[in-house]
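Please check this one:

***
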Amino acid sequence: MEGEGALLRTLIIGGYGFFGGRIARALARDTTLQVIVAGRSQERAGAFAGELRAHAAHPVMAAPIDIDDAGLADRIATLGAQLVIHTSGPFQGQDHHVAQACILAGAHYADLADATEFVAEIGALDAAARERGVLVVSGASSVPGLSSAVIARYRGEFAAIDSVDIGITPGNRTARGLATVRAVLSYCGKPFECWIDGAWRTVYGWQGLKWHAYPEPVGRRLLGYCDVPDRVLYPRTCEGVRTVEFRAGFELPVLQLGMWCLAWLRRCGCVGDWSRHAERLQRMSEFTTGWGTYAGAMHVDISGTRHDGTPHRVKWYIVAPDGDGPQIPCTAAIVIARKLARGDMPQRGAIPCLELFSIDEFMAALHGFNVHEMALIYPGV
């Protein structure tokens, strides 16, 4: 059992992939966990596990696994997994069968999903997860995992929160995985509802462009609307909030404007779903990787009123100046795994990743990476 001296056997689906590999590398060094690198390819899983063993605290295992296998629950149980981290996106269009398999196998579960319906509807598994005594967490990533931790840190400074504005912008030279490309293209030009000025209003993916000034070396970036869980979760959890918006943007304005144009083509009916063209568009984008920088950032901008009735605003940033940005969306799952292994996470049931760790815990897990946080406080603004 976790927290009682035994190792928490952790199965990472997609464990040799873009995000899964980063999680496996971090957890393999942890003395409280044993990692199983899993994916469709036994050869790739075995090769990556072998690479990790040189610096691992405990033997790293490898296993072939197919999330579409009807016997997935039995496979998880046979491997003795106590925690499964699902990193094989994109999660847009997936159902919860992997989480259901984990519940049947009696294993905890966490995923890196940023698909709105996927994360927001995870509560449908709550009763089954509680009955089996396991924790099922969806959205253990930058959103809503990290963004909710930021709101939790500063909520006490506000009597009321009026607006939450969130944005992410990677450096153009930072590597990008195909699953991520598919995910962001899936809602390019797609209409969805955002909570703006106290009402649900229709916006379109990668449109609604807006400049945001980030700390150096990131600088000004052009951002567009993206469909993430925060847009539906925070109107429920931040009582009285009138506006919740999320945007993302490329470093190069030409790429951002290109996405804006692709969005119009979908809106006009010329293209049904850009995610079907993800491989081709990713190859095309690689022609620009010699331009720009590795610097990326995320912001959470919270506005409202203090307890004395005066206006208050907090602009929080996490900045990765040298290409370590992709570690940020991996870190929530790493923190959750370590807390489960130590017995520091008593929650059970199926829940979105909301306020499950502190910013201090998150930043501690990023030790050794060139990533830092900062906050700008605007009292009376």
Observations:
- The chain has a mean pLDDT of 95.
- The first helix runs from residue 20 to 28.
